[in-house]
């Protein structure tokens, strides 16, 4: 069991959290330093996730000083090739050759920024790459461009890991890199050791995957590079508080992360539109900590023996005791 888990979050939760019904958001829109000031109030925070567009306002050296001042690390740099209209028909798979080249250069620049800050990881969520209708894309061409583009980026600096974040839908009806199976296929086709996955728990749930199983599949291939914690009921990517809808799945995920010795950041990708953002991030930290306190009560060998037996009732009784305590009907 890791004695001290490291937690990180992006600056998005400290923003206005606008949506299509309330585009201006549900609270004051702060600049980057205003968001950093809110992050500084979060108890137990160890690092920040940065996005490439943030370097337009604060350069690498500026972020380095902010991180040093607070004793934080940079857990990852997310590459923004999805947040502008020009990417609407794709980034690495765009029909525009010039835009494909621009996307590759943005990713490479993000890799350099990440390395300069000691993260050595970029998150690559290809949100605009996919299709909405039948007969809208040549799938052979789309996947060839994905493989070639990611391969070129990975070769740019083998010391920086590219973390592909898969998601089934939104903003495209069908996103190209949509499931753990597709991301593993893409990783295998690229064939370079610094290409892996950022497992977003809510995205796995949205694919009707079990996050623990997805984590193990990626771990078995040595491609589990980063994790985003959040939750949703399974119908949409709501980025809710970790464990709020899938409590038992969170317990199982934490059990297996403990089993495989996960010692990297526990990062939160949440959207607390109507909640206090500082309290929301702290709630996520405490929910993960609480899950680990519960599984610390489990005997690993006993759990594995029951799993080998596939005995749900015996396992349910064991879990029931650590969660609800001993006792029968009153």
Short description:
The chain has two domains: 290 residues, TIM Barrel; 34 residues, no CATH class. 42% of the residues lie in helices and 13% in strands. It is α/β, with parallel strands linked by helices.
Features:
TIM Barrel; 8-stranded parallel β-barrel; alpha/beta; two-stranded antiparallel sheet
- What is the CATH architecture annotation of the largest domain? Alpha-Beta Barrel
Helix share bin:
40-55%
What general outline do the C-alpha atoms trace? Answer: globular
Q: What integer value in Å does the Rg equal?
A: 20 Å
Largest sheet: 8 strands, parallel, barrel
The count of helical stretches stands at: 11
- Which strand-content bin applies to the residues? 5-15%
Q: Would you give the CATH topology of the largest domain?
A: TIM Barrel
Low-confidence stretches: none
Specify the CATH class of the largest domain: Alpha Beta
At the fourth level of CATH, the homologous superfamily of the largest domain is: Divalent-metal-dependent TIM barrel enzymes
Strand order of the largest sheet: 1-2-3-4-6-8-9-10
């Amino acid at each position: 069991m890791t004695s001290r888990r490291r937690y990180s979050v992006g600056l998005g939760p400290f923003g206005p959290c606008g949506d299509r019904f309330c585009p201006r958001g549900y609270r004051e829109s702060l600049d980057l330093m205003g968001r950093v000031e809110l992050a500084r109030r979060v108890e137990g925070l160890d690092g920040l996730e940065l996005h490439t567009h943030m370097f337009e306002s604060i350069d690498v050296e500026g972020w380095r000083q902010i991180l040093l001042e607070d004793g934080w690390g940079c857990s990852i740099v997310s590459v923004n090739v999805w947040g502008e209209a020009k990417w609407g028909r794709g980034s690495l798979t765009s029909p525009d050759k010039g835009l494909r080249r621009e996307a590759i250069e943005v990713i490479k620049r993000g890799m350099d920024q990440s390395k300069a800050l000691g993260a050595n990881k970029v998150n690559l969520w290809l949100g605009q790459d996919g299709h909405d209708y039948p007969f809208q894309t040549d799938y052979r061409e789309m996947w060839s461009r994905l493989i070639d583009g990611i391969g070129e980026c990975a070769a740019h600096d083998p010391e920086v890991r590219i973390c592909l974040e898969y998601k089934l839908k939104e903003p495209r009806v069908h996103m190209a890199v949509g499931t753990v199976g597709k991301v593993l296929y893409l990783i295998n086709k690229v064939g370079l050791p610094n290409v892996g996955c950022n497992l977003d728990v809510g995205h796995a749930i949205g694919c009707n995957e079990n996050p623990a199983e997805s984590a193990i599949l990626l771990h078995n291939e040595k491609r589990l590079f980063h994790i985003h914690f959040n939750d949703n009921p399974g119908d949409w990517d709501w980025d809710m508080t970790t464990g709020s809808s899938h409590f038992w799945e969170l317990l199982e995920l934490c059990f297996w992360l403990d089993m495989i010795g996960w010692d990297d950041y526990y990062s939160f990708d949440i959207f607390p539109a109507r909640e206090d953002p500082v309290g929301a991030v702290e709630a996520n930290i405490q929910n993960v900590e609480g899950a680990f306190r519960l599984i610390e009560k489990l005997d690993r060998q006993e759990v594995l023996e029951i799993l080998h037996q596939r005995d749900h009732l015996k396992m349910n009784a064991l879990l029931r005791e650590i969660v609800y305590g001993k006792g029968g009907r009153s």
